From TrEMBL:
The gene is lrp_1. Pfam families: AsnC_trans_reg, HTH_24. This is Leucine-responsive regulatory protein. GO terms for biological process: regulation of DNA-templated transcription; response to amino acid. SUPFAM superfamilies: Dimeric alpha+beta barrel (SSF54909), Winged helix' DNA-binding domain (SSF46785). It comes from the Bacteria. InterPro entries: ArsR-like_HTH, AsnC-type_HTH_dom, Dimeric_a/b-barrel, Tscrpt_reg_AsnC-like, Tscrpt_reg_AsnC/Lrp_C, Tscrpt_reg_HTH_AsnC-type_CS, WH-like_DNA-bd_sf, WH_DNA-bd_sf. Residues 5-66 form the HTH asnC-type domain. Keywords: DNA-binding, Transcription, Transcription regulation. GO terms for molecular function: sequence-specific DNA binding.
Length: 153
């Protein structure tokens, strides 16, 4: 479905990105509109797939997940069977917050959140036992300088 977004739609989306838990009244007030048009626009954007699942952001460190690793993976395997096995291995591991297939020298990058380096090693050992990987480089994030899920609307 092709949806054209106007300024009001973008304002609504910015508000939803800022805090999707706001009431409809709060969103309508923030975008200088009334509740019914705002609700109708949100509904249409959901139907079009622009607005997806609503969730909450948890504080990883407050929950004991102090270590964030970016894992660079090179593989010599590029067959469909290997890719499916690799993807399955990633999907069943909740430590993997993000996974991207890349262009360039590195084939994949993972964002892995764990309590500590020992937990990362457990994750790593399990992954390489399940899937053949040519080279793995793990980079520990010392400090998160910026984090957002918001798109620049």
């Amino acid at each position: 479905m092709d949806v054209r977004l106007d300024d009001l739609d973008r304002k609504i989306l910015r508000e939803l990105q800022r805090d999707a838990g706001q009431s409809l009244d709060e969103i309508a007030k923030a975008v200088a509109s009334s509740k019914t048009p705002v609700w109708n626009r949100i509904r249409k954007m959901r139907e079009a797939g622009i607005v997806g699942t609503q969730t909450v952001l948890l504080d990883a460190e407050a929950l004991g997940f102090d270590a964030c690793f970016f894992v660079l993976i090179r593989t010599s395997e590029h067959e469909r069977d290997w890719q499916e096995k690799f993807l399955t291995a990633l999907r069943v591991r909740p430590e993997v917050q993000e996974a991207h297939r890349l262009a360039g020298d590195i084939d994949y990058i993972l964002k892995v959140r764990v309590p500590n380096a020992r937990a990362y090693d457990t994750f790593y050992q399990a992954l390489i036992a399940e899937v053949k990987i040519h080279n793995v480089t793990a980079l520990l994030s010392m400090e998160e300088l910026k984090f957002t899920t918001a798109l620049p609307l």
